Q: What sequence folds into this?
């Protein structure tokens, strides 16, 4: 049997549980870059940079895990909605601790140090360095 050929990228995590068991700082760095570089519609840096709400973060996080959030639900205990929401909020807290993004009402805004990450020649490596500065020593 011949398998179909696809150009779809392989997600870095294996579903919601894969993200749940991954290093939170690594997930936060990856989510920061994919979320905010995707929204780049003009030259960076920008003061009026688009902000993203929880729905946007949940969608990006689900994409990193290779799964879909499905339709909106009012039941916060349904999966994968509950795990994805928890993980997205943890990432935002990590970004705030690293001073690269902050909550503004129900939105998340990139701060100036975060903008430097996004305009760097290697945003993934720059985000990893920002996370390394706040990573707990084990």
A:
């Amino acid at each position: 049997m011949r398998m179909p050929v696809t150009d779809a990228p392989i997600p870095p995590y294996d579903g919601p549980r894969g993200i749940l068991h991954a290093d939170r700082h690594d997930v936060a760095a990856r989510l920061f870059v994919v979320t905010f570089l995707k929204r780049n519609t003009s030259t960076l840096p920008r003061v009026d940079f688009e902000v993203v709400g929880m729905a946007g973060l949940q969608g990006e996080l689900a994409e990193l895990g290779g799964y879909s959030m499905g339709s909106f639900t009012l039941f916060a205990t349904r999966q994968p909605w509950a795990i994805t929401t928890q993980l997205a909020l943890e990432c935002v807290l990590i970004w705030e601790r690293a001073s690269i993004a902050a909550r503004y009402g129900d939105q998340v805004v990139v701060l100036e140090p975060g903008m430097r990450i996004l305009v760097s020649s290697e945003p993934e490596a720059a985000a990893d360095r920002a996370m390394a500065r706040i990573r707990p020593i084990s």
